[in-house]
Amino acid sequence: LQRKQAQFYENIVKVIRPKPDYFAVGYYGQGFPTFIRNKVFIYRGKEYERREDFEARLLTQFPNAEKMKTTSPPGDDIKTSSGQYIQCFTVKPKLDLPSKFHRPVSEQIVSFYRVNEVQRFEYSRPVRKGEKNPDNEFANMWIERTIYVTAYKLPGILRWFEVKSVFMVEISPLENAIETMQLTNDKINNMVQQHLSDPNLPINPLSMLLNGIVDPAVMGGFANYEKAFFTEKYMHEHPEDHDKIEKLKDLIAWQIPFLAEGIRIHGEKVTEALRPFHERMEACFRQLKDKVEKQYGVRAILSSLDDRRGSRPRSMVRSFTMPSSSRPLSVASVSSLSSDSTPSRPGSDG
Known about the structure:
Structural class: alpha+beta
Distance between the termini: 34 Å
Strand order of the largest sheet: 1-2-7-6-5-4
Helix content: 40-55%
Radius of gyration: 23 Å
Oligomer: single chain
Largest sheet: 6 strands, antiparallel, barrel
Number of domains: 2
Number of helices: 11
Strand content: 15-25%
Order of helices and strands: HEEHEHEHEEEHHHHHHH
């Protein structure tokens, strides 16, 4: 029994679990049965199922339905029409870690809760406000984010549940930049942890991630944020954003030690054939490091990088234990339903 249990634990940490996509589906028009008419549901797709395949599977159940081309909520003319209109788009599940995880745990366990036992989902679409800036598209790129809360957590007895509440938040260009930098730092950190806990992981995903960040010819890095927000003109027009700008600068500075650790691991695992690629990446990183440390200060990982086998090193806890007040507003402002207003998971007779 203990051998079996040990095998399960080993699988949890080392076996790749497919991450299904989630889809929001709205059934509009008087042609649908009353229990789905003019309602929105969140569906959990099958493993590795693309949206196109999911839509095709959905439309076979309603051959007379017309697929809507937009993702914005339909007007009364569609809701009251005699036809059938189906709206379908991909939504992103929002991680809601159980309270028992008060300390950092294996990335494989966290990734499980990113797509399981989830009740909140979001859909973001960019919205331009003001005149278009041909030199920098980030300066006036707002994000309109819609949050969907389902009646029960997915997956449950069913692979789809009705949306019980919907609300929308607007993310300013600066808040969007903060959120993007935070996600990038977490992504580097997570991949570093995976390679530390399993030295046999393939190196290609790490190569692509690091190169996409440090090589300016690939992504352009955060230079666009500097041009958009770190100017005297922006500070003069938006004095209320001073704390957020400092937060963004802090995240940029913290990216350097995370990248350094990723490149160190990459250098240990790189093959001779990829050695020139690694050396170019190191050269790009040195330039980036000098620039960032000169402008935004030096950040150091807290403890020794050598004592790290077995669990997430204490040195990497920083990015997971930042106070909620320093998180992007778009993450902190969306509160989940309180426990007394959330219906329990339906029983077998539900």
